[in-house]
Every structure is written in C-alpha cells, then in structure tokens.
C-alpha cells in the first residue's frame, strides 16, 4: 500500500528519535516489531488481528502503510481456538461447547494483556502515550477500543493517540459521564453485509469517546481498495506527529485532510 501521508509538525520531543524495541520477556505473546523506515520513531501503530487469524499478515499490513516516522507492532492473540487444524487465535474465549459464538464474551484477559504491553512501551521503550495509535479488525478492533478506554480510566492525564476499529464494536457499554479524549475512527459495512456492526454500536462509541468518526462502505471484511483506505489514511494524517529531524532536509508529499 503506497498511499502517502503528510504528517503534522509537532514540537520538539524529549524522547529518543530511535526507540528501544519491545522485549519478548515483557510481552507474553508472539509479536512483530518494525522500526520506522525513515529512521525516526515518532509514532507507534499497534495492530490487532481478528478472530481466527494471527499477527503475521497484520505485520505485513502495517509495513505496507509506509506511514512516515511510524514504527509498527503487530501482536498475536493469546488463546488458540481449539479443534482447528491450522493456527487460529482469539483475544478471549469466544465459543461455547457447541461451537456457537458467546453472546456475552469476557474480554478481560485481552485487556490485561494490552495493559501490560502499553505499560512496557511507555515505561521501558520511551513511547509517550499520545504517540501510540491502535488499529484493530473485528475482535481485534473491539480489544483496541476497550483497551483505549481502560488505559484512559487508569491514566487520565495521558490518553492514547488514536484508535481505528474496523467492524469491531465495544463489548461493554460505557457508563462513565466523562468521555475519553482519544479520537476514534469506526469503519463499518453497510447492512445487511456479514460482519456489519450492530445498530446500537455507534451509540456506545459516542457514549465512551469525545470524538468519533464513522465510515460506512459496502462490501465486507477489511478495507480493500484505495477508496476504502483513504478515510483511514486521512484520519492518521491528522493525528500522527512529525518530528523535525535536525540536520536533515525532509520532503513530505501528500495532502493533509
């Protein structure tokens, strides 16, 4: 994916230009970390796959974005789905004994995992919370959004940078009167498409977050075309930061949204 993104220039940062990579000893699931192509790790995009997948294709997806000054971290879900012949993972228990999807799943194990990852990234890898952005598909999108809300409840002075959820609804209904300031983009499919969000999904997002952008397209599953990725790229262009690199002349192409 070669769409170009023009980033906003931000004030000089006190964090290192090249961040320490995350340690396997601190993250209890397999992952793939890729520093920024241009040598400046100003932003970090965490990618969370959907139900029945692994982190491998999402690592490739993150690299294909070629976002300027942005490192990527693709995480694999912690639980293997039983009785399948190929590796397939879930962020939390999703099926009953008959193989039917649970009506009320418990995402707490996944949220505990993401909390541990975010703590490691901010405390040990020098990432400011507002430079960490989450992208998730379906169940991974639910975990991304729920983790963003939980992080903000526990670190209200340091919200995360942004979250993109592709057909991933909130699993719980926000009850706090205060709303999380982290901007959210929700990518949905037009009904009756398989996997489209429930009717009340946006009500929950708007109850939990101050700024919610909704994009609805025909089709199903992940964004496929340039037209479908364009609003997500524009969303990132308005929220990813750009560090001015001393002694280098940078040419940034593209158009900010």
UniProtKB/TrEMBL annotation:
Pfam families per record: Abhydrolase_2 (PF02230)
GO cellular component, one term: cytoplasm
Name by which UniProt lists this protein: Phospholipase/carboxylesterase/thioesterase domain-containing protein
Organism from which the protein derives: Dentipellis fragilis
Positions of the Phospholipase/carboxylesterase/thioesterase domain: 39-175
UniProt family annotation: Belongs to the AB hydrolase superfamily. AB hydrolase 2 family.
PANTHER family from the UniProt entry: LYSOPHOSPHOLIPASE-RELATED, PHOSPHOLIPASE_CARBOXYLESTERASE SUPERFAMILY (AFU_ORTHOLOGUE AFUA_5G09340)
Domain of life: Eukaryota
InterPro entries for this protein: AB_hydrolase_fold, LYPA1-2/EST-like, PLipase/COase/thioEstase
Annotated segments matching region Disordered: 1-27
Gene Ontology MF terms in the entry: carboxylic ester hydrolase activity; palmitoyl-(protein) hydrolase activity
